Automatic annotation (TrEMBL):
Record-level Gene Ontology MF annotations: ATP binding; DNA binding
Pfam families: FtsK_SpoIIIE
Keywords: ATP-binding, Cell cycle, Cell division, Nucleotide-binding
Entry annotated with the keyword Lipid biosynthesis: no
Positions that bind ATP: G141, M142, T143, R144, Q145, G146, K147, T148
SUPFAM superfamilies per UniProt: P-loop containing nucleoside triphosphate hydrolases
Protein name: Cell division protein FtsK
Domain FtsK: residue ranges: 123-313
Keyword Ion transport: no
Organism: Lentibacillus populi
Gene Ontology terms: biological process: cell division
Length: 378
């Protein structure tokens, strides 16, 4: 009799739990069924719900053999009409956010620790990139999606935080239009706006790297972080596709392009430990425009919207950037991955804030370029 009563109570409890189950839980379970996310008759089992102010997280035990499926996140986001983050750590976590990520976040000139830069607001928090932890970065994204704004944000933030220690070498192959004004700043060593100037800039950087390397060897140092050297030297390349040797070029011209390719790879391969930081930017991520050597050595990858899944795989080693819909929205990938809204900053605000660093005499810049390093062609 007792057993029968116990069984009736248990069945009743299950019925009530199912009937009054919150709608969101039901929708998630129905979605699993509809997309056949199960093994045989075994379905994921909800074991816990965690709650925070901005999200609710459903944690499921999944049957052996079932892992997270890349389709789950976009399908659940559309079904629930809310931002969803799915991750798997032996259990399946489905985090459902209450609010959508804002479409615009303003940069606020705050002082940040060390060599960190606010790269974007995720659903949970502001994500910072630390250039002392991950020296090199690639940036990809179709035209008008926010690459230049991000580059200027990094430059402005670092100059504001480290006016006496940061140095920039900029290759601006969009005709020097974007960074021409910045060439007047004390912290901007040089701006190259065509391939010949890029060649000269990269050869002067390689020369510095060689001399720094022998200084490091003499001092017995292997990494700038172990020294008292406070300077960090950034090399920004925008747009890298312009440095790919095309078939229409003659032999001599091709040599210049090949040298540039070699120099960029060398910076990525050997210069991080010496305090050089490469930011390599392209609209068209392909095996030619994003060389293997650079990709392998740049442990931070950022991508704005890209036209295809193939391009996303080149830029980030995974799909996703082709599904971004907002301007300024990007995937930031290191050992972790975050969808972020990059803080927006107006060119006029940067110029206003940084004008105190304008120098009229190039010799008063930080570490002025010795004349013999400047090589020109043509
Ligand atoms: N983080 C952002 N938040 C909001 N709006 C942005 C953001 N970044 C860029 N935008 C808007 O998009 C416009 C284009 O951005 P940007 O110049 O950075 O594009 P781009 O990717 O560098 O394009 P291109 O490769 O053609 O030079 C900006 O003028 C601005 O209006």
């Amino acid at each position: 009799m007792e057993i029968i009563t116990g069984a009736i109570i248990a069945c009743g409890a299950m019925y009530v739990a199912e009937k009054y189950e919150p709608l969101e839980t039901k929708k998630i379970k129905h979605t699993f069924r509809n997309i056949n996310y199960k093994v045989g008759d075994y379905e994921p089992k909800l074991i816990r719900i965690r709650r925070k102010e901005s999200w609710k997280e459903y944690i499921f035990n999944v049957p052996y053999g079932l892992i997270d499926d890349p389709k789950l996140q976009p399908i659940l986001a559309k079904t629930l009409h809310k931002p969803v983050h799915v991750y798997f750590d032996g259990k399946l976590h489905i985090r459902v956010y209450k609010q959508k990520l804002s479409n615009k976040i303003d940069y606020n000139w705050h002082i940040a620790d060390g060599w960190t830069v606010p790269i974007g607001q995720s659903q949970d928090k502001m994500i910072y990139h630390d250039f002392d932890k991950i020296p090199h970065m690639t940036v990809a994204g179709m035209t008008r999606q926010g690459k230049t704004v991000l580059l200027k944000l990094i430059l402005a933030h670092l100059i504001n935080n480290h006016p006496d220690d940061v140095q920039f070498n900029i290759i601006d192959l969009k005709g020097g239009l974007e960074f021409g004004w910045y060439d007047r700043l004390k912290q901007v060593k040089q701006v190259a706006s065509n391939v010949n100037e890029a060649y000269a800039l990269l050869s002067s950087v390689l020369k510095q790297i060689k001399s720094d390397m022998s200084r490091f060897k003499k001092g017995g140092y292997t990494n700038v972080l172990d020294t008292n050297i406070s300077t960090r030297k950034f090399i920004i390349i925008d747009e890298a596709a312009e440095l790919v040797p095309g078939s229409h070029l003659d032999k001599e011209e091709k040599k210049i392009y090949r040298y540039c390719q070699h120099a960029m790879s060398e910076i990525a391969r050997i210069a991080g430990a010496l305090g050089y930081r490469l930011i390599f930017c392209t609209q068209y991520p392909t095996a030619d425009t994003l060389p293997r050597q650079i990709k392998q050595n740049a442990d931070a990858k950022i991508s704005f919207r890209l036209p295809t899944e193939v391009a996303s795989r080149v830029a980030l080693d995974e799909q996703g950037a082709e599904r971004i819909t907002n301007i300024g929205r990007a995937i930031y990938r290191t050992h972790e991955k975050h969808l972020v809204q990059v803080p927006f900053i107006k060119d006029t605000d940067i110029k206003n804030k940084l004008k105190e660093w304008i120098v009229d005499d190039a010799n008063t810049k930080m570490d002025p370029t010795p004349r013999e390093n400047i090589v020109t062609f043509g």
